[in-house]
Amino acid sequence: MLISAPTGSGKTLAAFLWAIDTLAAQPTRPQGISLVYVSPLKALSYDIDRNLRVPLSGIGADLTVAVRSGDTSQRERQQMLRNPPTS
Q: Which runs of consecutive H residues, i.e. helices, occur in 1-87?
């Protein structure tokens, strides 16, 4: 599927909401990471992180979110390896 719309119209959020709904609806989920979003823009990554946490808590989904950028400290990277986001 290809969605074409102006910047700021909610394309990414719509895709994430579909993915969250799909993951949350599965009776059993495989271990590990189920969804990866790669963005070339650091600001967009933080915006996605912030905008995902609210819908996840709102629907009661047992899913976690992590954001890593080039500025992520070595300490935070090690923490992500020890405790990766779960689905």
A: 11-25, 42-59, 74-82
Question: Could you tell me the sign of the dihedral formed by the alpha carbons of 35, 41, 43, 47, in that order?
Answer: negative
pLDDT tens for 11-59 read: 777 777 788 788 778 887 767 767 777 666 666 666 667 777 777 777 7
Task: Report pLDDT for 78.
Answer: 92
Question: Are 87 and 32 within 8 A, CB to CB?
Answer: yes
For 32, left (φ over 0), alpha (ψ -120 to 50), or beta? left
Q: What is the C-alpha separation between 33 and 86, in angstroms, rounded?
A: 6
Rounded to two decimals, the pTM is 0.48
Which residues lie closer than 8 Å to 13 by C-beta, 6 or more apart? 51
